[in-house]
Amino acid sequence: MQTDIQTYNRNQSSSDKEICDKLSEIIDSQLIESESKIWHAHPVWFLNGNPIVGYSIQKKGIRLMFWSGADFDEENLSIRGEKFKDASIFYNHISEIEIKDVLRWLQKSKEIQWDYKNIVKRKGKLEKLK
User: Topology of domain 3-111, per CATH?
Assistant: First the structure.
């Protein structure tokens, strides 16, 4: 796990830290070729410079977000962004994490991608990469 992400996780409450550690462990195991870092104040994993998945602490819980998740056709990723192609799920306890679901979503995140890397250059317009 990347050092800044370890620090981020360590700075959370004990129950949130447990969730964050589990999520980062799962993500790191599946996105081996990714780059991970703290981006806009929370952990994010990138493939070829394109943001793929990340999590953040919010009032509703820990939000696991997939940047292209709206196209995954996944019932449990029901919190969708209004402007982009993201989809999320919130966790409030480690027991809520269905590992097989997260593994499936991570696989889809490699196969289905919108080009967020160049969104500024395209003046907010997204193009599908995969």
Answer: Aspartate Aminotransferase, domain 1 (3.90.1150)
